[in-house]
Design a protein that fits this description.
single chain; alpha/beta; Rossmann fold; Alkaline Phosphatase, subunit A; 4 domains; 6-stranded mixed sheet; 28 helices; 13% strand; Alkaline_phosphatase_core_sf; PglZ domain protein
Length: 667
């Protein structure tokens, strides 16, 4: 067999029909690649998490059609993340064939607790490496050593010098290699054995990417100071003046060739910030120039051009894993935020280049989303990949902190590039630390679909009656938490925020009784729908608003009250040109600028005939009477003479949104 998935796929032959019941305690079928291949073979997977939700999905989508002799050939998989199937209803146990899959069955030579700690994305590398084991069985320690070396390419025994350790940390954190805590602890213990790095804060900078970058930023400033020969003597005499927040060695080997290769990219991606230096002009012709503020406008242009070149050579393809799109979107947002600074002169030629890449990205993403996005719906919520995963992710975080509190702040309509602009302002005016990730919104990227899915913690198919309104968000939010043991009086929901916080809301948020808060800040959405100056104007107004007290104050109130604070958006936005207004009259159930939604496919087809480049979206997870028609590339269903900022369609800026955990910086 060529991979671990083939062990499972052998039981899912194309053409199989009927009901299959799967006990899968390790969630192997929920791995994105595995789920995609099962679906390609004609199987529909339904997770069994609660009797009510399962019955709704199963009866409405499958049982009714079987009873009517429709789609008799459909194969259905009922998936249970337990070791046996006895929790399933009796009628299913009588009707379906039964299967069981586990990590222990596929990787029999490794310690099961060690295997269970791995992310499913790491199993491919482990499967390829395990052939070197023959029939040898490994214990806990040996399993950790083997996996560190063969899966993560980390060999602690080879870390002999400071440059070795720094290179390993740079590689791990830049590539966002997530070591499970079990392996983090083992790695730290192995490094500490040789005694060479006793002064390094390994317990902080190995598991925490943001702490490592902050540690690096402090040492970089000291390093740049040393580059001036006029200051070296005084620095050597006054080393005590340098008081970093993060303890550890002051002098790091930044000039080592294995270290330098990462530094340019860190500054390019905005993960490290250039520093001021009195001799900046003298340093402008050296390799450190990206990490020194020389001329703000020249620095912006240089970074913009280099970032564009880097991203142009690294575009995701139609078969890319979802993680590739999410990672790319973050770097793309940095590029757009640089480009759209309204107080700067346009960079000659760069606009045409970015527009050309946007066209290529939109076309590729549309194909990818049609084929791959539906396969992400039932992925585990840790880490969250789609918006509706976030509440379950928060619930798990809450379970791990006895008496804890969690707050979700939703900035309606905020794109990732606008978050980059906002983050820079907040970083200047607050002591917040931002842990950034990205998630997919729902298609079509409208508020009533995507934001409701976020607060419901479920796909839109579970709230068909309110698919065209947001009026039930508070109910869906409280219902989700009630299902997870949180009482209604312990839950807060508020919307329409953006300018101030009422005394009543403030009292609710700081109340010891409150454990969960869901807050909708709609200021960005209001800016967007009144915008007449395009995306540059959006960035300018968001920059101004972020500098006002409201958002910093709100986040400060939540942190002071002891919440774990997460910030996200329900969808992004783009600048679009009018392609004509459909003459559908009352045929459309919802008439957005980037998307029309119909109750019948024939009605959609009638309107689509006038817009041959529009996309008739048929993605999974929507109610059965929802048929969206999405406007073509960077266009909107408005008059041909109009330009506007809007949302609802398939573009990277609309579909991928930030998910940021906000904490206070270590002091």
């Amino acid at each position: 067999m060529t991979g671990w998935r083939e062990h499972i796929l052998a039981d899912f032959s194309p053409g199989t029909v009927g009901l299959t019941l799967v006990a899968d305690p390790d969630g192997l079928l929920l791995e994105a690649g595995m789920l995609e291949r099962i679906q390609e073979r004609g199987f529909a997977l339904i997770p069994f998490e609660s009797h009510v939700e399962f019955r709704f999905a199963f009866e409405s989508s499958f049982r009714s059609k079987w009873d009517e002799n429709l789609e008799k050939e459909q194969a259905v998989v009922v998936h249970v993340t337990q070791d046996d199937l006895q929790t399933l209803p009796y009628d299913l146990l009588q009707a379906g064939r039964r299967l069981h899959f586990s990590l222990a069955g596929i990787f029999p030579n490794f310690s099961y607790p060690v295997l269970a700690a791995l992310d499913k994305s790491d199993l491919d590398a482990l499967y390829l490496a395990q052939k070197d084991l023959a029939s040898e069985r490994l214990g806990d320690r040996s399993s950790k050593d083997f996996i560190l070396r063969h899966v993560y390419s980390i060999a602690p025994e080879l870390l002999k010098h400071t440059a070795d350790l720094l290179r390993m940390l740079l590689r791990m954190h830049y590539r966002q290699i997530h070591l499970p805590s079990l392996f983090q602890e083992h790695l730290i213990q192995e490094i500490e054995k040789n005694g060479r790095f006793s002064d390094w804060p390994l317990g902080t900078i190995v598991p925490d990417r943001e702490a490592f970058l902050a540690f690096l930023q402090e040492r970089w400033e000291y390093f740049i100071q040393q580059k001036s020969s006029q200051q070296i003597a005084s620095l050597q005499e006054n080393r005590g003046v340098f008081n970093p927040v993060y303890p550890g060695p002051v002098d790091l080997p930044f000039e080592h060739h294995d270290v330098r290769v990462y530094l340019d990219t860190l500054f390019l991606d905005g993960l490290l910030e250039p520093v001021d230096h009195p001799q900046s002009q003298a340093l402008s012709e050296t390799w450190v120039s990206l990490g020194v503020r020389i001329d703000p406008e020249a620095d912006r242009i240089k970074r913009l051009e280099k970032l564009y070149s880097s991203l142009r050579d690294d575009l995701p393809g139609q078969q890319a894993r979802h993680g590739k799109w999410l990672t790319f979107a973050r770097s793309w947002a940095e590029l757009l935020a640089l480009w759209l600074q309204t107080d700067k002169e346009p960079v000659p030629g760069i606009e045409d280049k970015i527009r050309a890449v946007q066209l290529e990205l939109d076309n590729t993403l549309a194909v990818w989303a049609e084929n791959k996005l539906g396969g992400l719906i039932n992925l585990p919520p840790v880490p969250p990949v789609m918006l509706h995963h976030i509440p379950r992710f928060l619930a798990r975080s809450l379970e791990q902190t006895q008496g804890g509190k969690v707050a979700l702040v939703v900035l309606d309509g905020l794109s990732f590039d606008q978050w980059v602009t906002m983050r820079k302002v907040l970083a200047l005016n607050t002591d917040f630390l931002f842990r950034e990730n990205a998630v997919f919104a729902w298609l079509p990227t409208t508020t009533s679909i995507s934001r409701q899915a976020l607060f419901a913690g479920r796909p839109p198919v579970f709230f068909p009656d309110s698919i065209h309104t947001t009026g039930k968000e508070a109910y869906l939010w409280r219902q989700f938490w009630a299902d997870h043991g949180i009482k209604e009086q312990e839950t807060v929901y508020a919307r329409g925020l953006g300018d101030d916080i009422t005394d009543e809301l403030h009292h609710q948020l700081v109340s010891p009784q409150t454990r969960v808060a869901g807050l909708v800040v709609d200021k960005v959405d209001r800016i967007m729908h009144g915008m007449e100056l395009g995306l540059s104007g959006m960035h300018n107004q968001i920059r101004q608003w972020a500098g006002q007290p409201f958002l910093g104050y709100l986040l400060d109130v939540l942190l002071q009250a002891g919440y774990q604070v997460f910030l996200t958006s329900d969808h992004g936005n783009i600048q679009a040109a009018g392609c004509g207004r459909p003459a559908e009259g009352a045929l459309a159930a919802s008439r957005g600028e980037r998307v029309r939604i119909f109750r019948d496919p024939a009605l959609r087809e009638r309107v689509a005939s006038s817009f041959p480049e529009a996309i008739a979206w048929s993605g999974s997870g929507l109610p059965e009477d929802v048929f969206p028609l999405i406007a073509p590339h960077r266009q909107a269903f408005v008059s041909n003479t109009r330009q506007l900022v809007c949302h609802g369609g398939i573009s990277l800026e609309e579909l991928v949104v930030p998910l940021v955990q906000i904490e206070r910086k270590q002091t």
